[in-house]
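Dear Dr. H.,

I hope your travels went smoothly. While you were away I took the liberty of generating a structure for the chain from your last submission, since the lab meeting agenda had it listed for discussion. I wanted you to have the full record in hand beforehand rather than looking at slides cold. The sequence, exactly as received, is reproduced here:
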Amino acid sequence: MRDIVYGPVKSRRLGQSLGINLTPLELKVCNFSCGYCRVGVPSKGDSVPEDFELYGWTLENVKRMITEGLEYHSREQTLIDYITIAGNGEPTLYPWFREIVDHLLDENRKKLQGKPTAIFTNATRLSQETSKTLYKIDRRFCKLDAGNEATFKRINMPLGVTYDGCIDNLLAFDDFELSMAIMDGDISNYDSFFNPDFLVRLNKMRFRRIFIYDIDIPKTISPRFNKKTDKLKLEKLADFLTKQTGREVIILWDPTTRECNIPLYPQQVN
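The corresponding predicted structure, in token form, is as follows:
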């Protein structure tokens, strides 16, 4: 339970980011099994309340830990730029996601004078209710690592979700930021982003900007995913996407290495 509130850690997008992790360290709940993920292979691909209760991550316990964590940082006058929901799995799979977001925002207003908030999600659970909850959060970062179904299956190795379903979710969503991890080693997604069909759908999405970054993180599942993309190729892709969409594309250079108190990924990179 000690790892629900962690950090702050230095984020390339958000500055000093106080993390909120909604998944037990012993139970990675995610419907993606991305080859580059430092957390490891998911033990669960769906949301079952009993699994969370088994490890004590009930709604009341998580609420209590969030309250205590924010109280601590308020007393310590910790430098915090953002409070960010991101951690050991897909946060929207937490069974009481709506309730915990409402609690976090309420406690944030009381304890930290309403610090800006953010969330990192794979955009697979954008139901009407979940989307309504996400819109309460200031910044929404949605993963999109592939320009077609075949690449999606190789890179993200989904559990019970489809590429078209993810794209449809993003097309129905509004006011978000895209995050694209770029791989160009033995397993590559680089060329898929030049796919004309993908670009048609991308241009219909109502996102603010795109962040692209290469994968150069030690201790990933497979070294086949852990090869840096050539700098010129990243710049070429950023320039291409900027021209195609008319929107800002930001390259996140040089992975940020930092310590945080989540043992499974002590050098998290957002």
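Two observations you may find useful: The domain at 5-251 is CATH 3.20.20.70 (TIM Barrel). The CA atoms of residues 121 and 142 lie 5 Å apart.

With kind regards,
E. W.
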